[in-house]
Design goal:
Blueprint lengths: L12 E6 L5 E6 L3 E8 L4 E8 H10 L2 H7 L7 H14 L4
Antiparallel strand pairs: 1-2, 3-4
Length: about 100
C-alpha cells in the first residue's frame, strides 16, 4: 500500500536532517494518513478511504464527500476515488 492520500495526492517527501554541526543526512517526511469511512449522500452508502488529516478537514469544510469530489481535479485522485467521483456524477446527472 502506497503512502499517498487518495483524495489530494499528498505523498512522501524527502529532505535533510541537519545536525547542530550542519551535517546533513537523508530523511523522509511522511503524510499523516488515516483510514476513514465517509458517507456519500448521493450513493446512500459508506466509503472507506485512506486520506490525510488535512484532506479530512477539507472534506468537512466543503460539506461532505460528494461536494469535495465535485470540485477535485482528476489528476489528484486515486483510481478508486476517481471511479467514485464518476459514480456520483452519474447518479446526480438525471436529477440536474
Amino acid at each position: 500500500m502506497s503512502r499517498r492520500c487518495e483524495l489530494t495526492g499528498k505523498a512522501v517527501l524527502t529532505g535533510n536532517l541537519v545536525s547542530h554541526s550542519n551535517r546533513k543526512t537523508k530523511r523522509r517526511f511522511l503524510p499523516n494518513l488515516c483510514n476513514v469511512t465517509l458517507r456519500s449522500d448521493a450513493l446512500q452508502r459508506a466509503v472507506r478511504l485512506r486520506i490525510s488529516a488535512h484532506a479530512l478537514r477539507s472534506v468537512e469544510h466543503r460539506g461532505g464527500l460528494d461536494a469535495f469530489l465535485a470540485k477535485a481535479k482528476a489528476e489528484d485522485l486515486s483510481p478508486n476515488a476517481l471511479a467514485l467521483k464518476r459514480e456520483i456524477q452519474k447518479k446526480l446527472q438525471p436529477a440536474a
